Every structure is written in C-alpha cells, then in structure tokens.
Amino acid sequence: NIVSLLGMIPSSGMDWLDRKLKIIRGKSEELQEEKSFPVNATVIFFTIYCFVWNMGTLPAVGYALDERTNWIGSMLRIDQSWGMFAPTVFKDDGWFIFEAHRTEGDWIDIKAGGRAITYNKPDNIYALFGRDRWRKYYENFLFVSNDWMRPIYCNYVKSHWNMEHPDIKIDSLHIVYMKEVTAPDYKYVKPKREILSTCW
Which residue pairs, CB below 8 angstroms and at least 24 apart, start in 137-145? Predict the structure, then answer.
C-alpha cells in the first residue's frame, strides 16, 4: 500500500517533499490568477454590453448602442430586447368566443365544440387553445397591426367547420374577444365583448 509506505519516509524527506509541493502550489495559484483576469474582464465586458443593449431598447432612455457594434451581439446571439415586459406588461386579458350562425337559425360557439353561446369566463382559458403555438397565434391575432390576418383566419375556421361538420353547417361567423382589463387594486371589471372579425 502506497499510503503505508509514506509513513516510512524519514522526517527530512517529508520536509523536502512539503517544500516542493508548496512551491508547485504557489506557481499554480499565480498561473490561475493570470488566467482569471482576461476571463473576468470578458465576462464584465459582455455583462455591460448586454445591459446597455437592453437599456437602448427602452423609448424613455433616449440612447442606444452604436449600430457599428451590433455585429458583436448578432454574431454571438446575445442580442436581446426587454420589449416583452417594457415599458409595461399587458393590462388586459381575455378569451375567445366563435359565434357561429347555423343555417337552421340558431347561434353556437364552435370554439367550444358547438355548444350554446355563453359569455361566462371559462374555468381554464388555456385549454381553449390546445397547444402553445395556437395560444401565441391568438395573442398575435389581437394586435391591430395584424388585423389583415383576421378575415383570412375567419374564413378558414368557417370552411373547416363546415367540412368537418356537414350536419351542423354555419353560414356566418363572428370571432369575438371577451376583453378583461386588469384594474388597479384587483378591482373587478366586467369583460367587454369585442368583435375582431366577421365572415359570411
């Protein structure tokens, strides 16, 4: 056993070995300190770079990084924006109702599988989307800048429903958003019915 053999080394030999190990350890620590400076400097630089980049995306700040330095962020994929949460988060939420008029004359909600229309808030709004990609699509659907896509999607939903449900055909569709504004101090605000698109 090597450990047992170490106990047989005379004290002078152990002192010599201890001095050698201290010298090696000292050189190693000096080398580590020399290496750590450029690493720390690089981390500090990119931390400041990202912070300044983010601050420049806020309208109230009034300054931004020089465009000539943008290639650094683009190349390393550290370009980012605080637009998701700045200058404020969404102040409203809600859910969709697809008010469809049947050829027989009554109205149904085809978003809810053809049930009777109700304006009560669903227990689980997320379940109405099915998948997260659809949730994101409907989120973009709300933006005024994307209003061009509303009639296209409205006609798609109407055609798809009639194709899938030949016995419950519809002749018109209102895509309705029940907008629920977040009020200060958690006060209740009655949801507002907004028709985003209609197709016949």
Answer: 138/96, 141/196, 142/177, 142/196
Please state the pTM of the whole predicted model. Answer: 0.59
Residue 194 to residue 175: CA distance in whole angstroms = 9
- Report how far residue 62's alpha carbon sits from residue 59's, in angstroms, rounded to the nearest whole number: 6
97: CB partners within 8 A, 6+ apart: 109, 111, 112, 117, 119, 176, 177, 178
Dump pLDDT digits (tens) for 145-179.
999 999 999 999 999 999 999 999 999 999 999 99
Q: Which residues contact 82 (CB under 8 A, 6 or more apart)?
A: 54, 57, 58
Sign (positive or negative) of CA dihedral 124, 130, 132, 136:
negative
Compute the distance between CA of residue 54 and CA of residue 65 in angstroms, rounded to an integer.
Answer: 9
Q: How far apart are CA 117 and CA 100, in angstroms?
A: 9
